[in-house]
Amino acid sequence: MDPAPRDLQDLLEQGDDALSHTRAVVDNATAQRTSLTPVDDLRHASAILRPPQIIAIGANYAAHASELQLRSEKAATVFSLWPNSLAGHEATTSWSEEISTQVDYEAELGVIIGKPARDVSEQDALDYVFGYTVVNDITARDLQFSEAQWSRCKSFDGFTPTGPVVVTADEIADPQDLWLTTNVDGTILQDSSTGDMVRSVAEIISYLSRSATLLPGTLISTGSPGGAGYSRTPPVFLRDESTVTVSIGGIGYLTTHCRVI
Prior knowledge:
Blueprint (H helix, E strand, L loop, with lengths): L7 H7 L1 H16 L22 E5 L3 H6 L9 E4 L5 E2 L3 E5 L7 E2 L2 E7 L15 E8 L2 E2 H4 L15 E2 L5 E2 L10 E6 L2 E7 L7 H9 L9 E3 L21 E6 L3 E9 L1
Parallel strand pairs: 1-13, 3-9, 4-15
Antiparallel strand pairs: 1-2, 5-8, 6-7, 6-13, 7-10, 11-12, 11-14, 14-15
């Protein structure tokens, strides 16, 4: 047995035996009523720290595509997020108003690949999922609509809060039956189901795996429902000292604090 994994990426790379060993350690600690640190006392990093790739799917809810006046293309809209954008639960994300004055929130279901997936069928795609997490795909809208690509506007430092936990796939009966909400400064602004996705989690994995192997630890952010701040009248953008909480039923909630510098 390899040494204890230092993070989730280690666990995934060590394979099924490492996961079984980790479960056994946890079960034993529970049975022995071992004293543990309460979750509320922990300081959280991103749920995944060293993903081989962060892949995002754009315009994957019809309501969101419509409100941003984006076309729902025949093929999925795919782009990458930069690893510096990862942040943890209760972290503070900051940005300069000289770069963007239209920073928006996006609740998204995060999917973490557990084993190499290459040219997998839609029917088998969910077998390659290790687990699910919560993602807030923070976006600088003014940059998004002034550039031909979407990676930079979503990849400021701290613009991809993720976590705080990963729920293993066996605990999620159907990833298309989860409820997402976004609470900004005490007001619910997004409230929708993953059942409203244009392309399901299984479709996304199968589609991506046709052209490239999805390696263990790959994070896929599956798109955001309607209710973005950009589309509201008047628009609702994140401001200095805003607090955003994204929640997904069956997984948990992710809180981000904002500072404009």
